[in-house]
Write a structure and sequence with these properties.
Blueprint: H1 3-12, H2 15-29, H3 36-50, H4 59-74
Length: 75
């Protein structure tokens, strides 16, 4: 059975059975080891998501942002 077929069938299950299926899948993944290269590649991708071309804000800028946010929230 292909992934798409399996997904279509899983959606048809009652909620309790879907939850049991998810638990079984998660349990099966506990015994799977992740290679060092896979882990390194994932870390590099995550770092890439966090990078920007702008410098980090200064403490003063952060204080101003926090004050503005609180003003918006409680006004």
């Amino acid at each position: 059975m292909q992934l798409q077929q399996l997904q279509a069938e899983a959606v048809k299950l009652p909620p309790q059975e879907r939850l049991a299926l998810v638990s079984a899948i998660i349990e099966s993944l506990h015994n799977v080891s992740v290679s060092e290269s896979d882990r390194s590649a994932a870390i590099k991708r995550m770092r890439g998501l966090l990078t920007t071309n702008r410098p980090a804000p200064t403490d003063e800028e952060v204080s101003v942002m926090l004050e503005e946010r609180l003003t918006e929230k409680y006004s």
